[in-house]
Design brief:
- With 230 residues, the protein is mainly beta.
- The chain is 10% helix and 47% strand.
- The longest helix has 13 residues, at 16-28.
- The two termini are 33 Å apart.
């Protein structure tokens, strides 16, 4: 699965307590349907995001969902940490859906605790519910401390992007005027012009650029602040 790390806006910050009641009600209302969906795999990343009050942790989590009745029959996806009663309910109004060949991935990014504290470690669950209330569930483990590496940084002058990053992998990201991602490429080790990095069309549409550093061995990464292009 290609990384969804930089896709999507922040989702509402929600306590899991009322969500668990909603989930219980949804399961209780389940009716007979076809074969239940299944979650073949979960991909997740723990990410540091910049803010005026200081960087905070967020989670990106995506489930590879298989549904014989069709992926369009999936109504809800939940990301839950039971021990801390923290979680999010995602629907087609706010989830991110990615089609990788025949594989459908659904999830969310920028999931953060309401007080922006570090996210709890341990066992998490992703749950998918279809239109008939049938469910699929898969656990994943979020472990380890966030690395002490600084977030990548960039400078932009006269269309020339200069990159500084200590992360094993670094992406350069372009965003249009609506905040949607317009481009994502491997960041140069030194500097490069925006047109050379993203192509003429994407560079012309870009109103902001940023960097994303990532350590695949830890499944952890960090975003830089966005810098205006004009």
């Amino acid at each position: 699965m290609r990384s969804p790390a930089a896709r999507g806006a922040c989702l509402p910050l929600l306590s899991c307590l009322p969500l668990l009641s909603c989930l219980a009600a949804a399961l209780a209302a389940a009716s007979c349907g076809g074969k239940p969906p299944s979650i073949a795999a979960v991909e997740w990343r723990l990410e540091s995001r910049p803010a005026d009050e200081g960087a905070y942790e967020s989670l990106s989590a995506f489930a590879w969902i298989k549904a014989e009745d069709g992926i369009e029959n999936i109504d809800e996806v939940w990301v839950l940490h039971d021990e801390s009663a923290l979680g999010w309910r995602l629907t087609d109004a706010d989830w991110i859906k990615s089609q990788e060949g025949p594989d459908a991935w659904i999830g969310g990014s920028a999931l953060a605790s309401p007080d922006f504290r570090p996210l709890p470690r341990g066992t998490w669950r992703m749950i998918a519910l279809d239109a008939s209330g049938q469910r699929a569930e898969r656990e994943f483990s979020l472990l380890g401390s966030f690395p002490s590496l600084p977030a990548p940084s960039l400078k932009l002058s006269s269309g020339m992007l200069t990159v500084s990053s200590s992360w094993p992998e670094t992406l350069a990201l372009a965003f249009d005027a609506t905040g949607a991602q317009a481009g994502s490429v491997a960041a140069p080790s030194g500097g490069a012009r925006l047109e050379d990095l993203f192509g003429t069309d994407a560079a012309a549409r870009a109103s902001e650029v940023a960097l994303y550093g990532y350590d695949p061995s830890l499944r952890m990464g960090a975003f830089s602040r966005r810098v205006p292009t004009r």
